Please model this.
Amino acid sequence: MEAFCGSRFWDSNLTIHTDNPDLTPCFQNTILAWIPSIYLWSALPFYLLYLKHNKRGYIVLSVLSRFKTLFGVLLWAVSWADLFYSFHELLRNRTPPPVYFVTPLVVGITVLLATLLIQYERLRGVQSSGVLIIFWFLSVLCAVGPFRSKIMSTTAQGHVNERFRFTTFYIYFALIIVELILSCFKEKPPFFSPVNTDTNPCPELNSGFLSRLTFWWFTSMAIHGYKKPLEEKDLWALNEDDTSKTIVQQLSKEWDREKAECKQKEDVTYMKKSNHMLNHVDDGPEEAEVLIRDKKHNRKPSFLKALLRTFGPYFLIGSFFKLIQDLLTFVNPQLLSVLIGFIKNKDAPAWWGFLIAALMFVCAVLQTLVLHQHFQYCIVTGMRLRTGITGVIYRKSLAITNSAKRSSTIGEIVNLMSVDAQRFTDLMTFLNMLWSAPLQIFLALYFLWQALGPSVLAGVAVMVLLIPFNSAIAIKTRAFQVALTTFAVYVSVDEKNILDAEKAFVSLSLFNILKFPLNMLPQVISNIAQTSVSLKRIQHFLSHDELDPNCVETKVIAPGNAISVTNATFSWGKELKPSLKDINMLVPSGSLVAIVGQVGCGKSSLVSALLGEMEKLEGEVAVKGSVAYVPQQAWIQNATLKDNILFGQAPNEEKYQNTLEACALKTDLEVLPGGDQTEIGEKGINLSGGQRQRVSLARAVYSGSDIYLLDDPLSAVDSHVAKHIFDKVIGPDGVLKGKTRILVTHGISFLPQVDHIVVLVDGKISEMGSYQDLLKQNKAFAEFLRNYALDEDIEEDEPTMLEEEEVLLAEDTLSIHTDLADNEPVTNEVRKQFLRQLSVVSSEGGECPNKMSTKRRVCEKKPAEPPLPRKNANEKLIQTETTETGTVKLSVFWQYMKAVSPVLSLAICFLYCCQNAAAIGANVWLSDWTNEPVINGTQHNTTMRIGVYAALGLLQGLIVLICSFTLAMGGINAARTLHAALLENKFHTPQSFYDTTPTGRIINRFSKDIYVIDEVIPPTILMFLGTFFTSVSTMIVIIASTPLFAVVIVPLAILYFFVQRFYVATSRQLKRLESVSRSPIYSHFSETVSGASVIRAYRRVKAFVDISDLKVDENQKSYYPGIVSNRWLGIRVEFVGNCIVLFAALFAVIGRNSLNAGLVGLSVSYALQVTLSLNWMVRMTSELETNIVAVERIKEYSETETEAPWTIEGKSPPEDWPSKGELEFVNYSVRYRKGLDLVLKGLNLQVHGGEKIGIVGRTGAGKSSMTLCLFRILEAAKGEIKIDGVKISEIGLHDLRSRLTIIPQDPVLFSGTLRMNLDPFNKYSDEEIWKALELSHLKRFVSSQPSMLDYECSEGGENLSVGQRQLVCLARALLRKTRILILDEATAAIDLETDDLIQMTIRTQFEDCTVLTIAHRLNTIMDYTRVLVLDNGTIAEFDTPANLIAAKGIFYGMAKDAGLA
Model:
């Protein structure tokens, strides 16, 4: 080296052992000058690779860029001027040492490279270059030494040596400082970059390197959130790379690739097998072996691989940062030992101390910056994982077969999305600990071994033994126990082993480092175990069979036909037996085909088969043209009524109005509070069954498709509405004439008007042809018609009936569902106007020769009337979930403390104080021990020292144990109390609450919020108290050892407080926004899963996928700033912590004459720990404030109003009540909810025991409401109901409800066995159950199932047809057999034959009971004792059917419509 430089390379007297240090010129010219160059050249290949892959468009040449380049070129010129000067000297025969050639050459080339990089980055669209900022920074740093050195030498000598080099160096120094400053500014955004159309783009993309390093770009949001609570509109748009579109695309691509690879392998295996078969004809055993071996090779496609390929590379960047951070962690303990050595050595120059303090600070700051970069990368990976998995699952759920869908309930599929995807996100944060923890443990042990020798092993042994007791004690005091063991062993092994400050405190800080990886490792391993379970579940779901998109041919079909099915057999799943066998049918374009048959004979299955929803086992199906599908149970989205009908089509007002008109929805709109902007609740909860069906039909009509598959749309509506819909929509003169229509129906009256009829029996087509053909064939169908058909003549209406029928229609459509509207008077007003017009029309009688023109006239006249005043048009049924804003009220904390119990709460705080006192005591004692004087190479009183240290430690452990235990018990107790209150309240909540609250919201309280109280709040409180007391004790210790520190505490505390307030306000609101935007993802998903067949039929899959992506992105929009806010906070708070380290060290250096080494060790090792606890303290404050909201939300739902008590002491009716079954309504009125109008108005009626009463009326006349009143699901507004003379309002609800039986309109089944559904309380024997099944005509179906009564009903009875579900409800009623039976349109979905049988059953089995039947099909009640006609909540007529028909009133009109009069 000396030859190279021409002088000495290193001189420790000049550099170290002096009060005024300097470096040798040789060192300055080589090492210092080369460091920046070495850095830049080694970083270059990686950086170029990165730039090659990331292009953001180029940046226009700006003034900034020009100056940067200019100064770069000048720097190059200056460096090479030095080089030429050396050559010049060479020519003058003064040979300079080689270093004067090499260094300028290297530096020159490097700055030239940097200048070129500036331009290349500009072309690749880099706005602010980290690589170059670091390069210029290093250059300035390395030039500061020579700069000072040159000034010093010049001052000392009084004149300048080598004037030329002196000048060039100063120019060089000035230029690199300018370059450093310029490089900190960022360029304008690149040109031609993908245009960011977002109104509120995320500033991260365009922020500079330093801003990204410190997350400074987030500050604007923190300030905004502090000033006023953040709202949806304040959130930044997602970065392109974080959007669903990008991520799901990548992940799907990788997953498809993985599946394809596996498929290829499988194919290869099969090839092999077949070859073996050919070659070895008689080698039995060997061939078998080969087959077995091949079996193993068939691997399933691994979703993990796809995830690794998609997200691995990004995650690895984070891992790289983690590696750097792990290495940096061990620098500070080494510096601490140097510092303690410095304090002991009284002769050392003071600048050593300051340098050590500065290095400690720099090291800590670097560690902070690197750690948070690592977290950012890991957590963003986690966030992307969740987006990706959610998107992939959503897309899959729209494609899986029905049998696959049955194998998991909707709830389970939603869980994949919510719980399992979340697991990945949680794991990502600490996944790197898998390799980082062992690394840290290894390094710590290595340094400990150096300090204390083999005694370390004792401590490690204790540590390993403690892993099983991985409880709070271990966590809190593990470092302590280990230290105790190690020190005790170390001191006892050999008298010569002296525990001095250096060894003690360096070891302590190393043990503190050990604490974290040892705690995390088991946790990470358990997390990985949980995540792998989730992974298996997701992989299982994603590997399900998908519907074959080509099972229905859409292109080729015999000319003139719209649908053709040849020799086709279908089943609901590959493993199930076929539900449809040998189906052959041709449907000519534009014809109307009816499909009829008994319950469960496969009518709906046939429709599903045409949609491609079933497994086609053999045969061909072709459907040409677009399809519209109306399912048997209407699927309604949670959107406005208009959106439900448009279903993503472009709005066309005229077409829309015609559709409404045809589907008889016009009048419903007048009654709904917001017209067609009324928001429909989940599953269409605020529409009546008939309205839902009509909306579903309107959706189909509006879609303007070629083929209409209508699965029994007429059963849910009243008979005259059905007639209207058939005439106006489906029939030969309807809106859909000329389209191909397939209609599943039970209504016989429409059959003469259809072109073809297909009769299904047990999954086969028994006969088909036109109505006349089938009558001529005289087979089963003709027989059936003769029994049920009505007189043909009725089809021809006598003209005189005209007005009345019109009025009826008007009446019906007008009074629909007034109970949900708040404007009944208006409706009455409309009705009067409407009737007035009708009378006008009919008085001009001569002018309307036929029926149609009158109808048209009415419609034309109507718009002339003044429009109705619409009350509060946008009154929403479902109020949006409110998010709390601002700080959480103290009352909520108090509420939680009450649930825990106040005494316990105080005890816990007190125990924490004691525990920290003990901890400080132990460390002070240790510091005192290390200062014990050494006599003859040994220390005295070691046993006493160890004894006290141990005692303090054990006391600390004991307190922690008691404390954690108390807190855990308190937490469990509180959760139990709050959950019990919530559950109790929800079981007693009246129906109206469930009508206005989406189920998702209620379930959210039970799942998310209870989970938070159960598992999140207690550990949060534990951490909060822990970190709080640790921080306080640190301050106490540092101030005690260096009182000067008190001066710094105030400014640091203020800074800390500000950061904390800014953070908490912003982060809490982000958390709230995140949790509110999360539920829509899941509600939309469960809605999609239940409506998948409709979505597929209308070919709207892509649109729904986009909606889902949008909802996920909306959620991530609030999640991402939440992550960044933690990083922003971390860097700022840790900076405060790092300042504490700096000042603790500085003041120790300043006061080193009065301090002993033990105290310095104590105060600095405490300071090193404080960073973490400060950071966690803020995080925990925020977590607590965020999560305690759960208590508030649960409280809110535990205090909603409840219905009457279930049992009332001393008021219970006699055992056999009601023995007669008499009913009496006395002046009875009722409303649905407060603030709505009455639905029943002053009813007075008496029903004798054993009477059979039919209840009829238009939709919404109050028929169902009457039955709800009997069960007191609705409570009386005034008046009362008596049953056998007992006022039902005076007895307990359980007593009342258990004595009545209802067969509801929508049959309710629970997932479980059939037996459980029929007999939930195990009261009846098998014989009785079979008897009931026989009477309800289910025996044949049940006995054909392999598991008989243990047949598993899926969620909501999905695997039974709607008719069968109603029969199950009937069987349930037959078993329970009470004196009063209520049938609510119980047979709407059943064919006439079964219906007749059921009516027979009801007549014979319930002969002596009082039966109230709400009827759609009037023929079922024509032989009842009396019929009650309700109209608009009042009794219009009440008499025997015969008398009512004779009276020619409302009932007569209805009977005439149905062809019974």
